[in-house]
Design a protein that fits this description.
The protein is built from seven helices and five strands.
C-alpha cells in the first residue's frame, strides 16, 4: 500500500451506492474516477464492507443478491485497494448462497483461510451451513 493512500469510510460508499444524497454521491464518483485514472489511491477494509452490508440490509432493506452485486462492484473498482478482498469475496458469496449473516460468513471464510476447522458458538443454526466448519458446543 502506498504511503499516500487515502482511506474511504462507509458513508461515502453508501451515498454512492444509494444516491440518496446526490451531491455526496457525485463527490464519491469524482474520487472513484480519480482513482481509476491513477491520480489517487483509495483504500478501505473489511469492517467498512461489513458496515455497508449491514446498512444495505437493515436500513435500505435490499435483497441479498442486490447487496452481493454492490459489494462485488466495490471489490472490482479500479484504484481501490482492499487488503482482504479475497476473504471478502468468499464472505459475500457465502452470505448470499448460504443465507447467513455477513459476519458469520466472514468468520467462516477467515477460519478456512487460517486452516481452522472447528468453532465454539451458540449460533449453531448459521455455522452448521458451512461444510468447512465443525460446530462445537461450549
Amino acid at each position: 500500500m502506498k504511503a499516500d493512500s487515502i482511506f474511504v469510510d462507509t458513508n461515502l460508499f453508501l451515498r454512492y451506492l444509494t444516491n440518496d444524497v446526490p451531491v455526496q454521491a457525485d463527490a464519491m464518483e469524482k474520487l472513484l474516477r480519480q482513482a481509476e485514472q491513477g491520480k489517487i489511491t483509495l483504500v478501505t477494509n473489511g469492517i467498512v464492507i461489513a458496515e455497508i452490508v449491514w446498512t444495505l440490509e437493515s436500513y435500505y432493506e435490499l435483497e441479498r443478491s442486490e447487496i452481493q452485486n454492490k459489494v462485488l462492484a466495490i471489490l472490482n473498482t479500479p484504484g481501490l485497494e482492499i487488503p482482504e478482498s479475497n476473504l471478502i469475496l468468499k464472505s459475500i458469496m457465502w452470505y448470499s448462497d448460504k443465507n447467513v449473516d455477513f459476519i458469520d460468513a466472514y468468520n467462516a471464510a477467515w477460519m478456512e483461510q487460517e486452516g481452522i476447522e472447528k468453532i465454539y458458538t451458540f449460533d449453531q443454526k448459521h455455522f452448521s451451513r458451512f461444510d468447512e466448519v465443525e460446530v462445537l458446543k461450549p
